[in-house]
Amino acid sequence: MVSRVIPVEVFDLVIFGATGDLARRKILPGLYRRFLAGQMTAESRIIGAARTDLDTAGFRKLVQDAIEEFVSADRRDPAMIAAFLEHLDYVSIDASKGEAGWTSLNGLMRAGVVRAFYFSVAPSLFGELAEKLHAHGIADGQSRIVVEKPFGRDLATARALNATLASHFEESQIYRIDHYLGKETVQNLMAVRFANILFEPLWNSQFIDHVQITVAETVGVEGRGSYYDKSGAMRDMVQNHLMQLLCLIAMEPPYHFDPNAVRDEKLKVIRALQPVPHDDIVRGQYNPTKTAPGYLEDSENPDSRTESYIALKVHVANWRWKNTPFYLRTGKKLRARASEIAITFKEPPHSIFDDAEGWRENVLVIRLQPNEGMNLTVMIKEPGPGGMRLMQVPLDMSFAEALGEEAADIPDAYERLIMDVIRGNQTLFMRGDELEAAWAWTDPIIQGWEARGDKPKGYDPGSSGPEDALMLMHRDGRRWREIKE
Ligand code: NAP
């Protein structure tokens, strides 16, 4: 198979926060890989902006180092890196004060090309950036802005942020990134559901027993403890990433694969989410070990009640999903780094086989990381003589195996999403109303445990989370899938 790379339009992309962690680890290496793939056209330019006093050569060196560090060796072609660096400029700008740099930035922008501005800075700077871009005539009605999470920490702050951006940009110009939506498998979820007749007739509570969504990390909060402590797993992961995954599973077929049609359907799901009772939530904090600090030490807050783990049972109140629970869990310092969605189907209404022991449900697993792919477990006859015994086998599709060499060319989530910004395609970006609805569901849950003063339960690093999370499933006669790579 030969991969089809369609070059995007010529662009001027300004990255505010170009010296920061996200730009160095994801955005700039991603742009290099798109350049290598031939998707970024030769006339396009990338302009870094931050307070650090750098000239263009200094910025190019920073980007070259980032490529060395974050792009795999087989993709580091010295001639291509040198050619890529030629597309980079830099302007020193302090977004929070003064006018220095803005005129230079304006001078670098060209007419007649796509203008995009990536706000890879703290959200507190979004307002000032938006205002200055307009005041200096740098942004116009066709320009696009890309904003990172966290998008607010509750409904009130998200609304305020939306209002700030809306005072300078139309919704059609605002690209709120949730990189989970840029993952190949996540988009494949839509293809599986809406491009095959096989699953959709079964895709409802009549045939699906329950859904599990797991995003497990092995790392702790590392050096970000004091930042993370103001957030926690519910705000940092559930309100955005896990909820987006839930939406793609639960939504009705959109009338067309069109940004607003898809987002309208996702919004309906979020609005149908039921409040979650206290008993259906388990929160945890990882314990210290002999050699490693626990969450309380990492967060530098011995009284912290912030969760590094959360599991919750969620109901979508509509015809399709009545009585099919969605179990969500995410946490740090767990057994393995693994993200997956598992859809467990119900048992057939009547078994004609006596082999009750061998019986297992059909499960469709969509693996997001590592080893992106899909796996459908089906029952077959155990081979050989000895009667009709059943066994479960996987119909396993690893993208790497199924797509061969082409899999190596699959852009990572950031690359794809940045190219979508240039193409002007908002399908994989969260709309403002979607985001506010997500907070409107999240807020009362958080307020509930805050008002009660609940303390998260301890769990051991390398485990699958607090014991109580197992009970959340056991008491419903179900069990979590093993967390494994
Ligand atoms: P970071 O490493 O702290 O970088 C922040 C960047 O902003 C730096 O380039 C900094 O450069 C620049 N900056 C700070 N104050 C500025 C000002 N007044 N004017 C202009 N530039 C300024 O942060 P980050 O990790 O890259 O994160 C950037 C954004 O992405 C944040 O909103 C974060 O929440 C979000 N995010 C990050 C990640 C990640 O993996 N890192 C993941 C998801 C979301 P100077 O010091 O040179 O000004």
Q: What general outline do the C-alpha atoms trace?
A: globular
Ligand catalogue: NADP nicotinamide-adenine-dinucleotide phosphate
**SS strand fraction:** 15-25%
Radius of gyration: 24 Å
- Low-confidence spans: pLDDT under 50, at least 5 residues? none
State the helicity in percent bands.
25-40%
The strands making up the biggest β-sheet line up spatially as: 14-13-12-11-7-10-9-8-15
Tell me the structural class.
alpha/beta
Major pleated sheet: 9 strands, mixed
Q: For the residues shown, what is the average pLDDT?
A: 93
Q: Would you kindly provide a written description of the structure presented here, covering whatever features stand out?
A:
With 485 residues, the protein is α/β, with parallel strands linked by helices. Helix content is 35%, strand content 19%. The protein has a 9-stranded mixed sheet with strand order 14-13-12-11-7-10-9-8-15, sandwiched between helices. It is globular and about 80 Å long. The mean pLDDT is 93. Bound molecules: NADP nicotinamide-adenine-dinucleotide phosphate.
Which key features would you list for this structure?
485 residues; 6-stranded parallel β-sheet; binds NADP nicotinamide-adenine-dinucleotide phosphate
Q: Can I get a quick summary?
A:
This protein is α/β, with parallel strands linked by helices and 485 residues long. It is built from 16 helices and 15 strands.
